[in-house]
Amino acid sequence: MALVMVGCSDELPPPPPQPIAFSHSVHIENEIECTRCHEGVETQAQAGLPAMAACASCHRRQAADHPEVVKFMEQYANGNGEPMVWRKVHVIPTSAMVHFKHSPHVRAGVDCATCHGDVGSMTVAQQVVDVANMGWCLDCHREQDASIDCMTCHH
Ligand code: HEC
Ligand code: HEC
Ligand code: HEC
Ligand code: HEC
Ligand code: HEC
Question: 71, 18 in Cβ contact below 8 A?
């Protein structure tokens, strides 16, 4: 599969700090599917992030003495139901008034890796393609006969 790369990865912002060190690769090695944690990708605009309760359902027992799991479970227990504040890695500025939707892409068979790189082998999720780039969206839409009408993407 050809990766659509735009620009050079060192022009991209570094990954933002996260509240705990969450590793994708550890989970993917344990054969946990992307959709288990990002439940919206097939049906919603947003991929979504898992609720703390979903992480806790495994981690009450799984790796319960790992220091990052201990930190997580403490926040879960003491957080009064507040969700974990994960910081966004991929950001399309709201000023562009763009509505990106995951579901049509996933249904059309566009791989996560085409837009996000091989997240499953990353310890820290980071951007490898600049997604806030209209030219990148349009190039693929032209190649794959998807709509390039302004109103498809802009409000
Ligand atoms: C066509 C490109 C594309 C594909 C394919 C794609 N994404 Fe995304 N993804 C994006 C863009 C663009 C954003 C930023 C959206 C925004 O800022 O509104 C994003 C954001 C996200 C986010 C964080 C925000 C959210 O939507 O909840 C997650 C998690 C995510 N993607 C996971 C996935 C997974 C898992 C897959 C594969 C099943 C996938 N993506 C496929 C382009 C893509
Ligand atoms: C389906 C079960 C499952 C879910 C859901 C799950 N994990 Fe895990 N997690 C695992 C397994 C399995 C490991 C590896 C344990 C080992 O190696 O002993 C792991 C490892 C970890 C580790 C240790 C990482 C390391 O570097 O070794 C952390 C921290 C962690 N998970 C956090 C989370 C968080 C936060 C969530 C929710 C966003 C989550 N997990 C959801 C099963 C799960
Ligand atoms: C065990 C739960 C879990 C699994 C499985 C998982 N993710 Fe994630 N993902 C998270 C969490 C938690 C975050 C937020 C923290 C971070 O950015 O590292 C995240 C963040 C992301 C982001 C960055 C979103 C943003 O802010 O822009 C992308 C992209 C992503 N995941 C893609 C994937 C893909 C692709 C897979 C499957 C190969 C996958 N994830 C599997 C829990 C998971
Ligand atoms: C790698 C290829 C690729 C990239 C990159 C891509 N798209 Fe798409 N997009 C598609 C395909 C394929 C479809 C599905 C077309 C269909 O179902 O007819 C689609 C559909 C859409 C739709 C739904 C259109 C409809 O008719 O409902 C929107 C909205 C959209 N894309 C926005 C974006 C935005 C915004 C970006 C950039 C941030 C982007 N896309 C990047 C391939 C891509
Ligand atoms: C496939 C999706 C897509 C289509 C179709 C599209 N755009 Fe965009 N557009 C974007 C994205 C994503 C951005 C934000 C990133 C950037 O500025 O490059 C953007 C940014 C812009 C901006 C800059 C906004 C700002 O705040 O800087 C303008 C102006 C714009 N688009 C106009 C248009 C016009 C006019 C059309 C129709 C001829 C069009 N776009 C079609 C996705 C799209």
Answer: no
Starting from the CA of residue 33, give the closest ligand.
3
How far is the C-alpha of 32 from the C-alpha of 4, rounded, in Å? 26
Residue with tokens 């399309």: 92
Q: Say how far residue 107 (Cα) sits from the centre of its chain.
A: 17
pLDDT for the residue 10: 55
Q: Could you tell me the CA-to-CA distances from 81 to 75, 122, 154 in Å, in that order?
A: 10, 29, 35
Give the residues surrounding ligand 4 with Cβ less than 6 Å away.
4, 98, 100-101, 104-105, 108, 110, 114-115, 131, 136-137, 140-141, 144, 146-147, 152-153
Mean pLDDT value across residues 130-137: 96
Q: Is 72 exposed, middle or buried (0-12, 13-18, 19+ CB in 10 A)?
A: buried
How far is the centre of ligand 3, averaged over its atoms, from the C-alpha of 37 (Å)?
7
Q: How do residues 56-69 score in pLDDT, each as one tens digit?
A: 999 999 999 999 99
State how far Cα 78 lies from the chain centre.
Answer: 26
Residue type present at position 64: A
